[in-house]
Structure prediction request, 317 residues.
Amino acid sequence: MKISELESSDVDDIIRIFENQFVYKFAEDPHISREDILTTIWDDLICNLSSRTAFGYKAVYNSKLIGVAILKPSRWDSEILGINTTKISVFVKKYQKSVVDKLLTVLHNKAVENNIQLIFTRINLNNIFLIQHLLSQNYFLADILISLNKIEERESVVDIKQPSNLIIEDVKMEYEEKLVDITRSAYIYSHYYTDTLIHFEKAEKIYIEWIKNSLRGYANKILVAKQNKHIVGYITCKVIPIGKSRYGLIDLIAVRKSYQQKDIGLHLILSALKWFSNHVRTVYVTTQAQNIAAIRLYEKTGFRIVSSEATLHHWLV
Ligand SMILES: CC(C)(COP(=O)(O)OP(=O)(O)OC[C@H]1O[C@@H](n2cnc3c(N)ncnc32)[C@H](O)[C@@H]1OP(=O)(O)O)[C@@H](O)C(=O)NCCC(=O)NCCS
Prediction:
């Protein structure tokens, strides 16, 4: 077996061999074509490898590609956390300890060369042997990410009238401080908070910057919930193009703690779905496995789980 650097000419093989891993989450979605997903991934890989914003290695046996590892430094996370972070992806045709060991060694060397301090990776729970391998190499479990999807053909089965004192309306820039306040400590199940080496304030800052950026155009739509003139919750919506297809994404949703369990989250989702229905035919959302409140809320509004992934962290210092 030989390990060498990935080249742009390997991308066709990578897409062909690992196709099912790339399309996994979208596999049963009638509104996103397989071809669109693969073309988008092909374009991203070519662009990142040729501009050297990502680095990759391949494992080849008997002239056949059997494994790939890619490292892509994350600028945004690094700036906010004040540490150099990178995302890595590892794909193996069939789990073999020696292949993963060799790919990880070259990847870690590259990370050290780039002064990386923290590695993030996400692995589908189907690849349990790969997850076990990483856990044995000082990677630790930071969260389990659940993705859910709602296609337009699947009705939201709820028929709950919006209370007259609850108003769902478009966000205004002047609400920024209120949204930031609701965001504080709202997303404590995420991998930034569960890594005890990341300061709580830094994890919080990730989400505060996220909601601020959303207000400045990162989101395509933000709706807020107002009760008796108080802003008590928000939802941010994005439309993601993927080739000629596109899908909706509920990016952030939070309700102020003292107002939770009063159907506000529910009406935020229903209003967002109404907005999405004019733009996309399929909507995705992610949350952590331990966020039972969020999972139940999404399932109640017609979403179904489509994938589960382990988020793993590895500190190099
Ligand atoms: C998730 C969240 C937005 C739900 O908002 P909410 O206004 O409290 O939810 P609702 O009152 O509209 O509840 C609607 C449904 O969600 C589920 N749900 C909400 N809170 C729940 C809880 N604490 N436990 C179990 N189920 C819960 C229930 O199915 C509920 O319907 P039901 O009462 O008929 O069973 C809110 O808990 C929150 O802001 N959490 C922090 C931020 C967060 O986790 N966001 C999601 C990250 S992806």
Remarks:
- The pocket of coenzyme A is lined by residues 186-187, 253-255, 260-266, 287, 291-294, 296-297, 300 (CB under 6 Å).
